[in-house]
Write a structure and sequence with these properties.
Chain lengths: ~190, ~190
DNA sequence: ATACCCTATATCAGTATTGATATAGACGCC
DNA sequence: GGCGTCTATATCAATACTGATATAGGGTAT
């Protein structure tokens, strides 16, 4: 089992889902810290089923094609629980913008500034998205600090919180970088 | 060319290196935002060379085996410069601890707290490492804000700065999470 | 009707990446 | 001489992952 297996089981543990559902959830909110494509998700569901960790039932629908609703088996829930409480080796950090920044000394300051601003826009957009989710979550759950530890809502809130702080920190750094570049261009 | 190609070129653009050197640099500092194993680095160097972006010379050494010193060609430097000033699609975010947190509601609070503390120790260790590097960098370069934009030292400083803030932010969130868990255990 | 979009599942070829293993020179230790 | 360790390069099989493509049911618009 790979991390993706447990990401999917983690979604299924909250509610039964189809592959197509999971695909959407891989965009948001799971995609904020783990992601996969169609071509990985469908085979992975088959793998989970073959391993006895998930099962599915075909659900016909009136206005759309039938879907396969997946849910974790008892064994699947147990495997998830066990994996979650075992410290995992972190996935390697990969930040392509930092690879660029590492060689930023090679390009003209004006270009470097543009690049930084472009990155800033991307992260600002992401932060807005997170804040919209937080808004929605607040409306649904009320005071988040009242959430019970054994509720999925608490877990969702905790990961969202990290997403928010990540983007805020990234933005602050990007602004610092932009300032540092701009400061050397003007005088 | 893949991101790794430009990560390696970015290192070679600063100083000629052997595959073995690059391997160490992939631990620190490049590994903080991009990484690769031996088995990917050596073939990748061959690929860069085949593409005319790098070349090597064999350098015999007195007290150790001979090494192949690589350096970027003119074409390699140009390719790097061009890639750096082109906005890149971000690599998917992957944080295995957040995958765990997403299903943290399934495990006993005491276990959840342990897990969080373990993660905290890892990130605290990382932060210390970064701060040691900053210390060293300060001793070598003096006031970092005086660094010229077109100097590799500036680029190194900028990426290190991001690493420091990332770890500080992560630690703050971990402490917040630990407190939230602990608060529900005591009363 | 037929063209287009959304839901839904699936497969394939190719590439990126990992983990294990092999080889070898040079050093120091016992 | 034999052993372990560090430097140094290389390859292999297996797996993870991407991007493209296929199929098909049902809706709506033209």
């Amino acid at each position: 089992m790979i991390p993706l297996s447990y990401a999917l089981l983690g979604l299924l543990a909250r509610a039964p889902r189809s592959g197509y559902d999971l695909l959407q959830l891989m965009e948001e909110p799971m995609g904020f810290f783990w992601s996969a494509r169609r071509s990985q998700i469908y085979p992975e569901l088959a793998r989970l089923e073959a391993a006895g960790l998930a099962r599915h039932t075909v659900v016909p629908q009136r206005d759309r094609p039938a879907k396969k609703l997946y849910e974790p088996t008892e064994a699947g829930l147990a495997a998830l629980r066990e994996w979650v409480e075992t410290p995992q080796a972190p996935a390697p950090d990969r930040d392509i913008f930092l690879v660029q920044v590492y060689s930023l000394w090679l390009v003209a300051p004006a270009r470097a500034l543009e690049l930084t601003r472009a990155c800033e826009r991307r992260h600002a957009a992401r932060l807005e998205r997170y804040e919209a989710i937080r808004q929605r979550q607040r409306e649904e759950d009320g005071d988040p600090s009242a959430l019970r530890l054994d509720s999925p809502r608490f877990a969702s809130w905790a990961t969202l919180q990290r997403g928010l702080e990540y983007e805020r920190g990234y933005l602050a750094w990007l602004r610092w970088l932009a300032d540092a570049i701009a400061a050397q261009m003007a005088p």
